[in-house]
Amino acid sequence: MKTRMTALASTRMFFPELPGMPRVAYDKDDGAGAGGDANETNAAAEAAAAEETAARELAEAEAAAEAAAEALAAGSDTSKDGKEKAALLREVMDKKSKLKDAEKRATDAAAALAAYGGVDPQKVRDLIKREEEAERAAAEAKGDFDRVKAMMIEEHNKEKSTLQSELEAERAARAVDQKRIDDLTVGNDFGNSKFIQENLTLTPAKSRKLYGAHFEVVDGRTVGYDKPAGAKDRTMLVNAKGDPLGFDEAFKRIIDADPEKETLLKAKISPGAGSRSENLLKTPAKKSADNLFGMARLRAALDNDVD
Protein backbone atom coordinates (compact mmCIF):
# COMPACT_ATOMS: atom_id res chain seq x y z
CA MET A 1 0.00 0.00 0.00
CA LYS A 2 2.89 2.32 0.81
CA THR A 3 4.49 1.54 -2.51
CA ARG A 4 1.32 2.53 -4.35
CA MET A 5 1.05 5.80 -2.47
CA THR A 6 4.69 6.58 -3.23
CA ALA A 7 4.10 5.97 -6.89
CA LEU A 8 1.14 8.26 -6.85
CA ALA A 9 3.11 10.94 -5.08
CA SER A 10 5.88 10.76 -7.64
CA THR A 11 3.45 11.33 -10.45
CA ARG A 12 1.49 14.14 -8.85
CA MET A 13 1.81 17.52 -10.56
CA PHE A 14 1.05 20.91 -9.09
CA PHE A 15 -0.07 23.91 -11.05
CA PRO A 16 0.61 27.52 -10.18
CA GLU A 17 -1.75 29.03 -7.68
CA LEU A 18 -4.13 31.73 -8.71
CA PRO A 19 -5.15 34.48 -6.41
CA GLY A 20 -8.16 33.41 -4.33
CA MET A 21 -8.16 29.75 -5.60
CA PRO A 22 -7.13 26.60 -3.66
CA ARG A 23 -4.12 24.61 -4.74
CA VAL A 24 -5.12 21.53 -6.85
CA ALA A 25 -2.94 18.52 -7.63
CA TYR A 26 -3.44 16.14 -10.64
CA ASP A 27 -1.96 12.70 -11.31
CA LYS A 28 0.32 12.41 -14.23
CA ASP A 29 -1.26 10.78 -17.29
CA ASP A 30 0.93 7.75 -18.08
CA GLY A 31 -1.28 6.51 -20.97
CA ALA A 32 -2.49 3.33 -19.17
CA GLY A 33 -6.17 4.31 -18.99
CA ALA A 34 -6.20 5.10 -15.24
CA GLY A 35 -4.50 1.69 -14.53
CA GLY A 36 -7.81 -0.26 -14.04
CA ASP A 37 -6.79 -3.49 -15.83
CA ALA A 38 -3.46 -3.81 -14.08
CA ASN A 39 -5.07 -3.31 -10.70
CA GLU A 40 -7.66 -6.04 -11.38
CA THR A 41 -4.96 -8.49 -12.48
CA ASN A 42 -2.92 -7.82 -9.36
CA ALA A 43 -6.00 -8.25 -7.14
CA ALA A 44 -6.86 -11.62 -8.75
CA ALA A 45 -3.30 -12.85 -8.24
CA GLU A 46 -3.33 -11.76 -4.63
CA ALA A 47 -6.71 -13.52 -4.06
CA ALA A 48 -5.43 -16.77 -5.60
CA ALA A 49 -2.33 -16.66 -3.43
CA ALA A 50 -4.41 -16.02 -0.34
CA GLU A 51 -6.72 -18.94 -1.19
CA GLU A 52 -3.76 -21.24 -1.69
CA THR A 53 -2.28 -20.17 1.63
CA ALA A 54 -5.61 -20.73 3.39
CA ALA A 55 -5.95 -24.20 1.87
CA ARG A 56 -2.43 -25.09 2.96
CA GLU A 57 -3.06 -23.83 6.48
CA LEU A 58 -6.35 -25.79 6.62
CA ALA A 59 -4.62 -28.97 5.53
CA GLU A 60 -1.93 -28.45 8.17
CA ALA A 61 -4.59 -27.82 10.82
CA GLU A 62 -6.47 -30.95 9.81
CA ALA A 63 -3.30 -33.00 9.97
CA ALA A 64 -2.53 -31.61 13.40
CA ALA A 65 -6.08 -32.30 14.55
CA GLU A 66 -5.86 -35.88 13.34
CA ALA A 67 -2.57 -36.36 15.14
CA ALA A 68 -3.99 -34.87 18.31
CA ALA A 69 -7.08 -37.04 18.05
CA GLU A 70 -4.97 -40.14 17.63
CA ALA A 71 -2.85 -39.17 20.62
CA LEU A 72 -5.89 -38.55 22.77
CA ALA A 73 -7.48 -41.77 21.61
CA ALA A 74 -4.30 -43.58 22.64
CA GLY A 75 -4.87 -42.33 26.21
CA SER A 76 -1.84 -40.02 26.54
CA ASP A 77 -4.06 -37.35 28.17
CA THR A 78 -6.41 -38.77 30.82
CA SER A 79 -7.57 -35.46 32.27
CA LYS A 80 -11.14 -34.21 31.96
CA ASP A 81 -10.12 -31.51 29.49
CA GLY A 82 -8.21 -34.03 27.49
CA LYS A 83 -11.22 -36.30 27.20
CA GLU A 84 -13.43 -33.40 26.13
CA LYS A 85 -10.88 -32.37 23.53
CA ALA A 86 -10.71 -35.92 22.26
CA ALA A 87 -14.51 -36.10 21.93
CA LEU A 88 -14.59 -32.75 20.17
CA LEU A 89 -11.86 -33.77 17.77
CA ARG A 90 -13.63 -37.04 16.99
CA GLU A 91 -16.83 -35.10 16.25
CA VAL A 92 -14.91 -32.73 13.98
CA MET A 93 -13.26 -35.59 12.14
CA ASP A 94 -16.63 -37.35 11.72
CA LYS A 95 -18.19 -34.22 10.24
CA LYS A 96 -15.17 -33.82 8.00
CA SER A 97 -15.60 -37.39 6.72
CA LYS A 98 -19.29 -36.78 6.04
CA LEU A 99 -18.42 -33.55 4.23
CA LYS A 100 -15.98 -35.39 1.99
CA ASP A 101 -18.63 -37.99 1.21
CA ALA A 102 -21.12 -35.26 0.33
CA GLU A 103 -18.56 -33.57 -1.92
CA LYS A 104 -17.91 -36.90 -3.65
CA ARG A 105 -21.63 -37.47 -4.23
CA ALA A 106 -21.97 -33.96 -5.60
CA THR A 107 -19.06 -34.59 -7.96
CA ASP A 108 -20.59 -37.88 -9.12
CA ALA A 109 -23.97 -36.21 -9.65
CA ALA A 110 -22.35 -33.44 -11.68
CA ALA A 111 -20.58 -36.04 -13.82
CA ALA A 112 -23.85 -37.92 -14.35
CA LEU A 113 -25.59 -34.71 -15.33
CA ALA A 114 -22.79 -33.87 -17.75
CA ALA A 115 -23.49 -37.19 -19.50
CA TYR A 116 -26.85 -35.77 -20.63
CA GLY A 117 -25.19 -32.97 -22.55
CA GLY A 118 -26.16 -30.17 -20.24
CA VAL A 119 -29.90 -30.92 -20.14
CA ASP A 120 -31.78 -28.63 -17.78
CA PRO A 121 -32.98 -30.76 -14.81
CA GLN A 122 -35.98 -28.49 -14.29
CA LYS A 123 -37.11 -29.03 -17.85
CA VAL A 124 -36.77 -32.78 -17.38
CA ARG A 125 -38.87 -32.65 -14.21
CA ASP A 126 -41.49 -30.54 -15.98
CA LEU A 127 -41.60 -33.02 -18.87
CA ILE A 128 -42.01 -35.99 -16.51
CA LYS A 129 -44.74 -34.14 -14.64
CA ARG A 130 -46.62 -33.43 -17.87
CA GLU A 131 -46.34 -37.07 -18.91
CA GLU A 132 -47.68 -38.23 -15.55
CA GLU A 133 -50.58 -35.78 -15.79
CA ALA A 134 -51.36 -37.00 -19.31
CA GLU A 135 -51.33 -40.62 -18.15
CA ARG A 136 -53.58 -39.77 -15.21
CA ALA A 137 -55.98 -37.88 -17.48
CA ALA A 138 -56.06 -40.85 -19.86
CA ALA A 139 -56.78 -43.19 -16.96
CA GLU A 140 -59.55 -40.91 -15.73
CA ALA A 141 -60.99 -40.68 -19.22
CA LYS A 142 -60.88 -44.45 -19.53
CA GLY A 143 -62.64 -44.76 -16.20
CA ASP A 144 -65.36 -42.41 -17.40
CA PHE A 145 -65.74 -44.46 -20.59
CA ASP A 146 -66.12 -47.65 -18.59
CA ARG A 147 -68.74 -45.96 -16.43
CA VAL A 148 -70.62 -44.70 -19.48
CA LYS A 149 -70.42 -48.16 -21.01
CA ALA A 150 -71.77 -49.71 -17.81
CA MET A 151 -74.62 -47.19 -17.76
CA MET A 152 -75.46 -47.97 -21.38
CA ILE A 153 -75.55 -51.70 -20.65
CA GLU A 154 -77.74 -51.08 -17.62
CA GLU A 155 -80.18 -48.96 -19.62
CA HIS A 156 -80.22 -51.56 -22.40
CA ASN A 157 -81.04 -54.31 -19.90
CA LYS A 158 -83.84 -52.20 -18.46
CA GLU A 159 -85.33 -51.59 -21.90
CA LYS A 160 -84.93 -55.26 -22.77
CA SER A 161 -86.69 -56.30 -19.56
CA THR A 162 -89.50 -53.84 -20.25
CA LEU A 163 -89.94 -55.09 -23.80
CA GLN A 164 -89.88 -58.69 -22.59
CA SER A 165 -92.61 -57.94 -20.07
CA GLU A 166 -94.67 -56.17 -22.70
CA LEU A 167 -94.17 -59.07 -25.10
CA GLU A 168 -95.29 -61.62 -22.51
CA ALA A 169 -98.32 -59.50 -21.68
CA GLU A 170 -99.12 -59.23 -25.39
CA ARG A 171 -98.80 -62.98 -25.82
CA ALA A 172 -101.10 -63.58 -22.86
CA ALA A 173 -103.62 -61.13 -24.29
CA ARG A 174 -103.40 -62.81 -27.70
CA ALA A 175 -103.92 -66.20 -26.07
CA VAL A 176 -107.06 -64.88 -24.40
CA ASP A 177 -108.24 -63.39 -27.68
CA GLN A 178 -107.47 -66.62 -29.52
CA LYS A 179 -109.44 -68.61 -26.98
CA ARG A 180 -112.34 -66.24 -27.38
CA ILE A 181 -112.10 -66.55 -31.15
CA ASP A 182 -111.98 -70.34 -30.89
CA ASP A 183 -115.00 -70.32 -28.62
CA LEU A 184 -116.91 -68.13 -31.05
CA THR A 185 -115.87 -70.10 -34.13
CA VAL A 186 -114.67 -73.65 -33.51
CA GLY A 187 -116.60 -73.94 -30.26
CA ASN A 188 -119.73 -72.61 -31.91
CA ASP A 189 -119.33 -75.07 -34.79
CA PHE A 190 -119.07 -77.99 -32.35
CA GLY A 191 -122.06 -76.75 -30.39
CA ASN A 192 -124.28 -76.33 -33.45
CA SER A 193 -123.12 -79.40 -35.39
CA LYS A 194 -126.01 -81.56 -36.65
CA PHE A 195 -123.59 -84.39 -37.37
CA ILE A 196 -122.64 -84.61 -33.70
CA GLN A 197 -126.24 -84.33 -32.51
CA GLU A 198 -127.64 -86.93 -34.94
CA ASN A 199 -124.82 -89.43 -35.39
CA LEU A 200 -122.41 -89.42 -32.45
CA THR A 201 -122.73 -90.68 -28.94
CA LEU A 202 -120.49 -87.81 -27.78
CA THR A 203 -121.72 -84.44 -26.63
CA PRO A 204 -120.43 -81.33 -28.44
CA ALA A 205 -118.18 -80.49 -25.46
CA LYS A 206 -116.59 -83.97 -25.37
CA SER A 207 -116.30 -84.00 -29.14
CA ARG A 208 -114.34 -80.75 -28.97
CA LYS A 209 -112.02 -82.10 -26.27
CA LEU A 210 -111.23 -85.14 -28.41
CA TYR A 211 -111.09 -83.57 -31.86
CA GLY A 212 -110.75 -79.84 -31.31
CA ALA A 213 -107.05 -79.94 -32.31
CA HIS A 214 -108.14 -81.04 -35.81
CA PHE A 215 -109.72 -77.64 -36.46
CA GLU A 216 -108.38 -74.13 -36.87
CA VAL A 217 -109.68 -70.75 -37.94
CA VAL A 218 -108.30 -69.72 -41.32
CA ASP A 219 -109.43 -66.49 -42.97
CA GLY A 220 -112.34 -66.21 -40.56
CA ARG A 221 -113.75 -69.71 -41.05
CA THR A 222 -113.28 -73.08 -39.34
CA VAL A 223 -111.10 -75.48 -41.32
CA GLY A 224 -110.58 -79.19 -40.56
CA TYR A 225 -107.34 -81.20 -40.80
CA ASP A 226 -106.73 -84.91 -40.99
CA LYS A 227 -104.37 -84.79 -37.99
CA PRO A 228 -104.21 -82.73 -34.81
CA ALA A 229 -102.05 -79.63 -34.54
CA GLY A 230 -98.33 -80.40 -34.34
CA ALA A 231 -98.57 -83.76 -36.13
CA LYS A 232 -96.27 -84.53 -39.03
CA ASP A 233 -97.65 -84.28 -42.60
CA ARG A 234 -100.83 -82.59 -41.41
CA THR A 235 -103.18 -81.89 -44.35
CA MET A 236 -106.21 -79.68 -44.74
CA LEU A 237 -109.43 -81.47 -45.67
CA VAL A 238 -110.73 -80.14 -49.01
CA ASN A 239 -113.32 -81.06 -51.65
CA ALA A 240 -112.76 -81.93 -55.30
CA LYS A 241 -112.30 -78.27 -56.15
CA GLY A 242 -109.66 -77.81 -53.49
CA ASP A 243 -111.86 -75.71 -51.23
CA PRO A 244 -111.92 -76.42 -47.48
CA LEU A 245 -114.75 -78.68 -46.39
CA GLY A 246 -117.49 -77.44 -44.12
CA PHE A 247 -117.34 -78.31 -40.44
CA ASP A 248 -119.80 -81.26 -40.46
CA GLU A 249 -118.33 -82.82 -43.62
CA ALA A 250 -114.78 -82.43 -42.30
CA PHE A 251 -115.73 -83.87 -38.91
CA LYS A 252 -117.44 -86.86 -40.63
CA ARG A 253 -114.20 -87.65 -42.49
CA ILE A 254 -112.22 -87.39 -39.27
CA ILE A 255 -114.59 -89.83 -37.52
CA ASP A 256 -114.54 -92.23 -40.48
CA ALA A 257 -110.74 -92.32 -40.27
CA ASP A 258 -110.80 -93.10 -36.54
CA PRO A 259 -110.11 -96.84 -35.89
CA GLU A 260 -112.63 -96.77 -33.03
CA LYS A 261 -115.41 -95.01 -34.92
CA GLU A 262 -117.88 -97.88 -34.20
CA THR A 263 -117.91 -96.91 -30.55
CA LEU A 264 -118.68 -93.30 -31.40
CA LEU A 265 -121.69 -93.71 -33.73
CA LYS A 266 -125.25 -93.85 -32.45
CA ALA A 267 -127.47 -96.95 -32.97
CA LYS A 268 -130.41 -96.54 -35.35
CA ILE A 269 -133.95 -97.95 -34.68
CA SER A 270 -135.62 -99.89 -37.53
CA PRO A 271 -139.38 -99.10 -37.99
CA GLY A 272 -142.23 -101.67 -37.65
CA ALA A 273 -142.99 -104.64 -35.40
CA GLY A 274 -140.10 -106.56 -34.05
CA SER A 275 -137.84 -103.67 -34.73
CA ARG A 276 -134.61 -103.49 -32.82
CA SER A 277 -131.96 -100.95 -32.25
CA GLU A 278 -128.75 -101.45 -34.11
CA ASN A 279 -125.77 -99.39 -34.89
CA LEU A 280 -124.96 -98.28 -38.39
CA LEU A 281 -121.92 -100.41 -37.86
CA LYS A 282 -121.67 -103.23 -35.37
CA THR A 283 -121.10 -101.82 -31.93
CA PRO A 284 -118.58 -103.84 -29.94
CA ALA A 285 -118.83 -104.40 -26.24
CA LYS A 286 -117.45 -101.76 -23.97
CA LYS A 287 -113.81 -101.93 -23.25
CA SER A 288 -112.33 -101.50 -19.84
CA ALA A 289 -110.30 -98.29 -19.57
CA ASP A 290 -107.78 -100.03 -17.35
CA ASN A 291 -106.11 -101.80 -20.28
CA LEU A 292 -106.13 -98.81 -22.61
CA PHE A 293 -103.67 -95.97 -23.07
CA GLY A 294 -103.64 -92.54 -24.61
CA MET A 295 -106.55 -91.46 -26.77
CA ALA A 296 -108.23 -94.85 -26.51
CA ARG A 297 -108.30 -94.64 -22.71
CA LEU A 298 -109.76 -91.14 -22.84
CA ARG A 299 -112.43 -92.17 -25.32
CA ALA A 300 -113.35 -95.19 -23.24
CA ALA A 301 -113.73 -93.00 -20.20
CA LEU A 302 -115.93 -90.58 -22.13
CA ASP A 303 -118.07 -93.44 -23.42
CA ASN A 304 -118.59 -94.74 -19.90
CA ASP A 305 -119.63 -91.25 -18.80
CA VAL A 306 -122.16 -91.05 -21.63
CA ASP A 307 -123.65 -94.41 -20.77
Helix-strand blueprint:
Layout: H1 2-10, E1 12-14, E2 25-27, H2 36-73, H3 80-114, H4 121-184, H5 186-191, H6 194-199, H7 204-211, E3 215-218, E4 221-224, H8 247-256, E5 267-269, E6 277-279, H9 294-306
Antiparallel strand pairs: 1-2, 3-4, 5-6
Q: Give the end-to-end Cα distance, rounded to a whole number of Å.
A: 157 Å
What is the helix content? 55-70%
Radius of gyration: 64 Å
Low-confidence stretches: 1-18, 31-36, 277-283
Number of strands: 6
Order of helices and strands: HEEHHHHHHEEHEEH
Strand content: 5-15%
What value does the average pLDDT take?
Answer: 74
Name the structural class. mainly alpha
Strand order of the largest sheet: 1-2
The rough form would be described as: rod-shaped
- Count every helix, treating DSSP H or I runs of 4 or more residues as helices: 9
Largest sheet: 2 strands, antiparallel
Pfam families: DUF6651 (PF20356)
Biased composition (Low complexity): 37-52
Protein name: DUF6651 domain-containing protein
Domain DUF6651: 174-277
